[in-house]
Every structure is written in C-alpha cells, then in structure tokens.
Amino acid sequence: MFRALMHIGCVSKVVRGVQSMDKFNLDDLDMISIARQPYLPKDSIKHVYFYHHRHASKQQHMFGLFLTPIKKVVVLVVDTVRTNLMPNMVNLYNVERTAKLEKNAGDDLLPPDELTFEVRVETDMNLVFKLLQKHLQSYKDEKKGPTLLAVQSTMDISDLQKAIPHFNEFPQVQIYVQDIEELYNVMDWQKIGAKALVRHYLNSERVLELMSEQCRYFHVPLGNMPEDPALFGADLFYARHLTKHNHVLWCSSTDKPDLGGSQETDS
C-alpha cells in the first residue's frame, strides 16, 4: 500500500498504451498534479458521521449515526437496563450549535441547523448493530450519491466492519480523536455522553476539511491518512525523493527499521 501511495498519490491518470480499462497494474498509472485536477473540492462528496464511545469496563456505550445528507440522526445507548436518561437531543443540538456559531462567527463548516433525532436505549449490542445496519441500508436506498463514512470510534474499524457489514459499502475515513476513558464514570453519564457526541459532530466538518487539506499537501487519498500525519508525510516525501533519484527502497512494515536481520546478529 505504501508503494502505491508513493507512486500514484491521490490523483492519477492511465498511461498511454494501456489496453484494459477494467484493471490496472501499478505501472499503468501516473500521478498528476492537483493543480491540473483538484482533489475533493468543497461539496464534491457527501459524508455520514459515525461516533462511538464506551466505558472501559462496564456495559455502557453510546453510538451516533449522523446521516447529514438526509438531516437524520440515530443515537443508540447501550446500558445494563433500558432506562432512558438522555436529554432532549434537538434542544441540546440547537444550544451547542448556536454557542459554536457565536464563538466562531461566519463559520461555514457547521452541520445543518435542523436535524431529526431518533434515540433508543438498548441492552443488547447485537440488536444495536442490526439497527445501525438497517439505518445505513435506508440511507443507501435514498440514493444521495457518493458518500464517505467518517468514523470516530473506540472500536477498531475491522471489528465494526464485521459487526455492521454495510460499513464495507462506504469509503471510510477514520477520525483519530478520542474522548477520555473516564467520560462515563458519572451518574448522569448519558447526559455527559450526549453532549460530547454533539460537540464532536459539530467539529467533524472542520476536522474533515483539515484532513482534506493535509491529503492535498501529501498527495494521498483521504481514506489512507494515518494517525500521525507528520511522521507519515516525512516518510512519504523522503521515499518519493529517493525513487526520483533512482534509489531502491527497502521499507519496514513496522515502526522500527528493517535492518535485514543484522539487528539479530548484533545481539
């Protein structure tokens, strides 16, 4: 994957003379400048925002599926009992959005001002995953066009893909922002969690725009941005510079350098 990102970046073209238009080898594609072909200009793709946070040891989870293109939000709470202590989500959202707008006057990267909320409290995680699957399918049936799935979760994306198969039908962008582990260590954890969920959603547009700017600078697809973009970008630019000057790359698949076994001999 690193070699592909290094070679073709986020915008590429098929080289002359390639016969097949169905599948390509890496050598069949050439990187082109985003000055010639802009990458993800504003409003070129819709997105759905998925949020999940959980207690470190208790069965306390909060899921939020923000289907922004259809102005619908699904909030699913998992607890040991089906007691709904959630605040009025419409009022909470309006208050938080207004406060953010007053603090950042003229901010055009805020989600829409009118959303409908569906809130449920369940005790069965499998049922919650089925409900999320159902709502993603309903969104697909709306045929709103190309949509990416922005994921901010304490669960690994691979686990989410297994639990919610429709995840695999959207290009995914991972947002590497986490709440503190102790967030739900309070009696009114549902209210605290609801406020955190809404605030993260209100920040999601700005986060995605920042990530898009980083991707244009690094010339990598949005879905391939890692947790540490600075380190990744340094590796990527250095690798491109070396190959441009006819160096052969020996890349390590881990955070430590691959010394060809010499580190074992030395020890």
Automatic annotation (TrEMBL):
Annotated organism of origin: Callosobruchus maculatus
DNA polymerase epsilon catalytic subunit A C-terminal domain sequence ranges? 88-267
Q: Name one Pfam family in it.
A: DUF1744
> GO terms for molecular function, please?
4 iron, 4 sulfur cluster binding; DNA binding; DNA-directed DNA polymerase activity; single-stranded DNA 3'-5' DNA exonuclease activity; zinc ion binding
Entry's EC annotation: 2.7.7.7
Q: Per the similarity annotation, which family is this?
A: Belongs to the DNA polymerase type-B family.
What's the main place this protein lives? nucleus
**Single biological process term from Gene Ontology:** nucleotide-excision repair, DNA gap filling
Keywords on record: 4Fe-4S, DNA replication, DNA-binding, DNA-directed DNA polymerase, Iron, Iron-sulfur, Metal-binding, Nucleotidyltransferase, Nucleus, Transferase, Zinc, Zinc-finger
- Provide the reaction this enzyme catalyses: DNA(n) + a 2'-deoxyribonucleoside 5'-triphosphate = DNA(n+1) + diphosphate
Q: What this chain does, per the record?
A: DNA polymerase II participates in chromosomal DNA replication.
| CC terms in the record's Gene Ontology section | epsilon DNA polymerase complex
What is the protein's given name?
A: DNA polymerase epsilon catalytic subunit
Compartments it resides in: Nucleus
Which co-factors does it depend on? [4Fe-4S] cluster
